[in-house]
Design goal:
The chain is mostly helical. It has one domain. It is 72% helix and 1% strand. Strands 1-2 form a two-stranded antiparallel sheet. Helix 5 crosses helix 6 and helix 16 runs antiparallel to helix 17. The longest helix is centred in the C-terminal third of the chain and has 35 residues. The termini are close together.
Length: 418
């Protein structure tokens, strides 16, 4: 399909495709050359990433000016609910946060991701489903391509000072895990729209990502992939061929991972399976998450109406004497309870459920693989956010923004891609 972008505005698709395809690999080089401690990237979005996302949002808005998706009544209500929750979190951060500056920094990152989602949605609307498919494919291939320089950097112990769970470009092995989940979810949705060599290339990327997932031993990352996607496939026939491809890629990836040296004795495919069988308690099985959830839920009970403000988990855990004071709650419901209080959390859950049902009905009615891809991305993100923090890092926020964009309506007169 020819692009519907007006003359003089054709820069934006190239910017979007380049960022989606190259940013993960560029950040591998950035981490190695800058030799910053991995904690720096955990505490805040790296400056090159923020600059790239600002460029993506800016060029996207300029190119799609006046072509952002028109919202129906339910869409407007969801948009207003989202804005209200953002303002609520801002007020709670101002009034209640231990470190309000850090809370507003994280709110800025969320707002930036929202701007990227709107800009990408505008590009899909003006450029059509062909451009949307190219952007989703760029995301998948970009994550898969970054595995090579990341592996070479790790083999060369580059940069110095990185521990066994630190990875150039992905910062931490768990961030790698949910990045692979989102890449595989997008690939599963794209499968039905690819043929021939394009499908072979996509499958190779899926196998590489599956192998890396099993190598990392990410049980939550795997569960966030294999639990929601089969449920989606019950309602979306266009997702079913991709589900079979995903199963084949997971089998091939598991076999490949069994031949690779593990991260450590307790990580990797067999290390984590052994840990699963020998865990003496639910908290051990959950890698300590239940303990921090108990602390955080106790803190939420101290401020049930307004919450403690955005991104205050670290200070709450430090005050409770936790040895490892994590930056996020490893669960978006607990995170929301702390940031918004329980009334805001209930409103956020209802808004998410309403949006997901609305998108499911749209994807089922359209039969468009692009809508299925977007819903697979969003669903895998939500599943991963129950046990990890993709909502806290750009490696999760950028794919989520693309998922939202793919679920937006195309320009009038443009049929879904075959």
């Amino acid at each position: 399909m020819d692009s519907a972008l007006p003359a003089g505005r054709s820069l934006a698709p190239g910017v979007a495709l380049s960022i989606l395809a190259l940013l993960p690999s560029v950040m591998v080089l950035h981490d190695g050359l800058m030799a910053l401690p991995p904690e720096a990237a955990l505490w805040a979005m790296p400056i090159p990433v923020a600059a790239a996302l600002l460029a993506l949002a800016g060029t996207g808005f300029l190119a799609a000016r006046g072509q952002t998706p028109r919202l129906d009544r339910s869409g407007r209500l969801l948009a207003l609910a989202t804005l209200a929750l953002f303002l609520w979190a801002s007020l709670a951060t101002l009034l209640r946060a231990t470190d309000p500056a850090y809370g507003f920094l994280r709110l800025f990152e969320v707002a930036l991701a929202a701007a990227v989602a709107l800009a990408l949605a505008g590009l899909v609307r003006t450029g059509g489903t062909a451009l949307g498919r190219q952007m989703a494919l760029a995301l998948v291939l970009g994550i898969a391509a970054a595995l090579l320089p990341m592996t070479l950097a790790r083999a060369a112990s580059w940069p110095e000072g990185f521990g066994k769970l630190d990875l150039a470009g992905f910062t931490h092995i768990r961030i790698l895990g949910f990045s692979l989940t989102l890449g595989l979810a997008a690939a599963t949705g794209l499968w039905a729209g690819e043929t021939g060599r394009a499908r072979a290339r996509l499958f190779a990327a899926m196998v590489a990502m599956a192998a890396a997932m099993f190598w990392s031993g990410g049980r939550g990352a795997l569960a966030a992939l294999v639990l929601p996607l089969p449920v989606l496939a019950l309602f979306l026939p266009t997702l079913r061929p991709g589900l079979l491809a995903l199963l084949a890629a997971l089998v091939a990836g598991a076999l490949a991972a069994s031949l690779l040296p593990g991260v450590s004795a307790e990580f990797g495919l067999f290390g984590r399976l052994t840990d699963l069988g020998e865990s003496a308690s639910a908290d051990t099985l959950a890698s300590g998450r239940l303990a921090i959830w108990r602390i955080l839920m106790g803190a939420s009970a101290e401020a049930p109406l307004l919450g403690h403000g955005m991104a205050q988990v670290h200070w709450i855990l430090a005050a409770a004497g936790e040895k490892v004071a994590h930056l996020h709650a490893h669960n978006f419901v607990v995170e929301a309870a702390l940031a918004l209080g329980w009334p805001g959390t209930v409103a956020a859950i209802l808004a998410c459920a309403a949006a997901w049902i609305r998108w499911l009905l749209r994807a089922r009615a359209s039969g468009d693989p692009l809508h299925a891809t977007g819903l697979a991305l969003v669903s895998a993100f939500l599943a991963a956010a129950l046990v990890d923090g993709p909502y806290f890092y750009w490696q999760g926020l950028l794919p989520l923004a693309l998922g939202f964009a793919l679920l937006a309506p195309c320009r009038e007169g443009q049929a879904p891609a075959p």
